[in-house]
Amino acid sequence: MPTLHHKAGTTLGCQASMATKYLETPEIVDLDWENLGFGLVDTDFMYVAKCGPDGIFSKGEILPFGNIALSPSAAVLNYGQGLFEGLKAHRKTDGSVLLFRPEENAMRMINGSDRLCMPAPTIEQFVDAVKQTVMANKRWVPPTGKGSLYIRPLLIGSGAILGLAPSPEYTFLIYVSPVGNYFKEGLSPINLIVENNFHRAVLGGTGGVKAIGNYASVLKAQRAANQKGYSDVLYLDAVHNKYLEEVSSCNIFVVKGNTISTPAIEGTILPGITRKSIIVVANSKGYKVEERPVSVDELLDADEVFCTGTAVVVSPVGSITYLGKRVEYDGKQRVCDVSKQLYTSLTSLQMGLVDDRMGWTMQLN
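^ that's the sequence the OP posted. Answer follows.
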């Protein structure tokens, strides 16, 4: 589908016409849902709202998906003043659509924006904007069990500025894309390498918020790992270089017996919403979950290891390589038992296949 470009002067009448045209389109687009990867697919519409020096965001509007105009001196381009979120929508068997804990993403954006000296939309505006964007692009939500609609809210310093200071203007934008599995292995165990030279975050930095600058810094180590055949990189703490932090874009869990351990949230690790949800689900199934410093030695001695995140959901780890030593988990008796159990429980909830006793899902008609 070609990318659409909108003009700044798009009228309400034009938008209404576009909405009418949208309603006449097929219920679900014709895509190869069986082979849907985690890549960008241009959809129909996006949401845009702006905020000036008063810190109050405009009502926002649904516009055709397309390029946006930014000054070369925009704060986000020069100083990286921006953050983003990620959440998903799933289609139920009855055709309706479910969101998963969008208010958690809204709160995380508020917390992150405070760290970056940015105003943020309220929880109510964030959730309403997500709803509007998903419903405008409902035909792009994959059939049940064939993937999900990935939702990417962005908050950026879009105002022009030369000196280092908070932007005079901000843009809150949401676009969406249908996606499949994040890792090419799908639900098969992934292979990680522990990074011993580069670090993702340090105490007092921005590792605990979803700042855009957190991600470019992992690309070098990630590319080197991919070239060697690894799926991704697991980072260690920057002080002792021995305690687990997180993978490039997801949290890590270590299983030993009936105990599941994951690094504590202390400012360097992103407080993942899937991570938070998995802890609750695991506790409900009788596992003992510990949030604490987890050493690399514990990792290598684990019964099972898995990652969690919005994109990956729950991904079992097949092997870990550390300082040239490779430890494989696929030869152990309980390999993937815990991760598969938790994955099934969480995705069944997200897709509306089981009753939501947690109150985590939000249904859109």
